[in-house]
């Protein structure tokens, strides 16, 4: 019996070519909605790599081990040496610093998950158009007493229903269901006590105005895809910000280490001067002369201590971003910047750089995406103001017999076919809710456009500022180089005079000490100008959205 039923069902499916054709047409009309996104460039690949890698592997969950990264075979070991002071020293290039930061830093790891989370919103939006299978089983046993002979009797019935339904991208909602109702009723009015009533029912509702067509029904998916792109832009913005931060700290470390060297050299020269003064104690140097030289030594020792503190403060900030097994916050290490700073470039094309920034800057890109989202919402809200007019259609094939096989053959042969088609209209008088929603979405779209214009102006202004900073620092490098040359010549002149001078006066001693300090200050100022120029270049690259390309992150 079960085998016979199964063969009957197969027979129905094979012979109902019209139903299968209808389903095929519906699937073509509604379309197969894909959750795939068109990801271009290396940013999506980089983001996915970070997500796949997950949080950085560290030695242990507690104590000092919680901040000690495990070795990563993907990175070659840095060139390391041991210094006389017992501290390790590593040579670090700027490219290496940026690469390790973008691979390891928890700051970039945190935001790397956001695009993947946003991508799941696309899947959730696409699922609205998935085909849904439904069905039910029901059994009833009725024994109702009645004073009316025609209504008395006992009956049992079982209902089997199975079908599929789907919402399409045009807004159409269709369903196809198979039902089988088996009834055993001994009521006097029944012609046949036991009957089998199979049916194939197709229903369709297609909106024609409100909630209709692709632009409305795909709005959620399109917005989710724009949200994913926005999350990628935010991720890129964070990567660019980290690259700029690393560059800034790298050049500040370069400056701090150079300042320590200049201060050490100044202290050494001051000690030499103190020794010369002390050696002339019995000739012409007074106690006041010696104490004045000693005061200069102590003052420069204190300045050296402060310079070293600033050096290690900057170095620790850089080490935190690196989050590297070899260079981390758990050990004493000296980082030696080996990338020499840029001191000259070709003239800046302001117009071209502003255009590049408006095209590539992540903040501008996010503002553009927000404007696109509000535009989609505005179009949907405009359609929602329309009346609700739906095309409603249904078709049904039925069978009825005391033999289940005969009943199914009636469906196969379409002996009893019913059809219906109509229009259903609904329109709220006044329609104030939909009109208010449309005005609200229009205002939000205008707000997003104003925000985009404001962001664009800010970015253009930032580019101009960075260009001026770079040009100013570029000119200052020349000026400070001249100051260094002049201070060095002045000090050398005093040292030459000292050799032939017969008497070491306090005035001469003060002039020499001041000349030493002037040279050191000029050298520091030159280093500052060089660092300002290089940090301005990094800031300009960040503003134009090209800093990752500049650092060869690919």
Overview of this structure, please?
It contains 14 helices and nine strands. With 554 residues, it is of the alpha+beta class. Strands 3-4-5-6-8-9 form a six-stranded antiparallel β-sheet, covered by helices on one side. Strands 1-2-7 form a three-stranded mixed β-sheet.
Spans of at least 5 consecutive residues whose pLDDT stays below 50 are: 1-16
- Structural class call reads alpha+beta
Q: What percent strand?
A: 15-25%
- Roughly how many Å apart are the termini? 67 Å
Topology:
Blueprint: H1 2-15, H2 17-30, H3 43-53, E1 79-82, E2 88-92, H4 94-104, H5 106-126, E3 132-144, E4 153-167, E5 173-185, E6 194-207, H6 214-217, H7 219-279, H8 287-322, E7 333-337, H9 350-360, H10 362-384, E8 388-398, H11 404-412, E9 416-426, H12 432-500, H13 506-543, H14 547-550
Helix pairs in contact: 1-11, 3-5, 4-7, 5-7, 7-8, 7-10, 7-13, 8-13, 9-12, 10-12, 12-13
Question: Brief description of this entry?
Answer:
The chain has 554 residues and is of the alpha+beta class. It is built from 14 helices and nine strands.
Which short descriptors sum up this protein?
elongated; 59% helix; single chain; 6-stranded antiparallel beta sheet; 554 residues; 3-stranded mixed beta sheet
């Amino acid at each position: 019996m079960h085998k016979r039923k199964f063969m009957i069902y197969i027979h129905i499916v094979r012979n109902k070519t019209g139903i299968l054709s209808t389903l095929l047409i519906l699937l073509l009309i509604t379309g197969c909605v894909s959750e795939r996104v068109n990801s271009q460039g290396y940013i999506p690949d980089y983001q996915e790599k970070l997500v796949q890698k997950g949080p950085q592997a560290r030695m242990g969950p507690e104590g000092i081990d919680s901040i000690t990264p495990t070795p990563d075979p993907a990175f070659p070991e840095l060139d390391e040496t041991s210094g006389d002071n017992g501290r390790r020293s590593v040579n670090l290039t700027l490219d290496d610093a940026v690469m390790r930061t973008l691979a390891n830093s928890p700051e970039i790891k945190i935001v790397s998950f956001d695009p993947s989370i946003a991508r799941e919103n696309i899947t959730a939006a696409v699922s609205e158009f998935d085909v849904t299978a439904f069905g039910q089983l029901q059994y009833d046993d009725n024994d109702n007493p009645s004073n009316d002979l025609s209504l008395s009797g006992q009956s049992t019935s079982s209902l089997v229903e199975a079908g599929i339904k789907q919402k399409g991208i045009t807004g159409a909602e269709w369903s196809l269901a198979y039902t089988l109702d088996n009834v055993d009723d001994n009521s006097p009015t029944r012609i046949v006590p036991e009957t089998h009533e199979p049916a194939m029912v197709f229903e369709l509702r297609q909106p024609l105005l409100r909630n209709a067509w692709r632009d409305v029904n795909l709005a959620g998916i399109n917005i989710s895809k724009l949200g994913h792109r926005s999350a990628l832009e935010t991720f890129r913005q964070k990567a660019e910000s980290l690259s700029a931060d690393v560059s800034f700290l790298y050049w500040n470390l370069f400056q701090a280490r150079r300042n320590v060297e200049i201060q050490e050299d100044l202290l050494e020269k001051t000690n030499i001067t103190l020794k010369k003064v002390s050696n002339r104690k019995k000739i012409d140097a007074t106690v006041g002369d010696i104490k004045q030289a000693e005061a200069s030594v102590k003052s420069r020792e204190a300045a050296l201590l402060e310079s070293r503190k600033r050096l290690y403060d900057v170095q620790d900030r850089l080490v935190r971003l690196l989050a590297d097994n070899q260079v981390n916050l758990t050990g004493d290490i000296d980082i030696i910047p080996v990338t020499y700073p840029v001191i000259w470039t070709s003239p800046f094309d302001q117009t071209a750089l502003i255009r590049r920034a408006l095209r590539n800057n992540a903040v501008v890109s996010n503002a553009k995406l927000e404007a696109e989202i509000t535009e989609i919402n505005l179009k949907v809200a405009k359609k929602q103001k329309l009346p609700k007019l739906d095309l409603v259609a249904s078709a049904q094939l039925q069978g009825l017999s005391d033999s289940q096989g005969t009943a199914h053959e009636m469906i196969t042969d379409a002996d009893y076919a019913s059809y219906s088609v109509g229009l259903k209209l609904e329109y709220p008088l006044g329609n104030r809710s939909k009109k208010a929603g449309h005005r609200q979405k229009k205002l939000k779209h205008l707000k997003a456009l104003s925000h985009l214009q404001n962001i664009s102006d800010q970015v253009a202004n930032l580019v101009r500022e960075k260009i001026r900073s770079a040009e100013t620092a570029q000119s200052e490098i020349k000026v400070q180089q001249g100051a260094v040359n002049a201070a060095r010549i002045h000090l050398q002149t005093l040292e030459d005079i000292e050799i032939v001078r017969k008497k070491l006066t306090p005035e001469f001693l003060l002039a020499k000490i001041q000349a030493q300090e002037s040279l050191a200050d000029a050298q520091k100022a030159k280093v500052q100008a060089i660092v300002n120029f290089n940090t301005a270049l990094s800031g300009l690259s960040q503003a134009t959205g090209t800093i990752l390309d500049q650092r060869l992150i690919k």
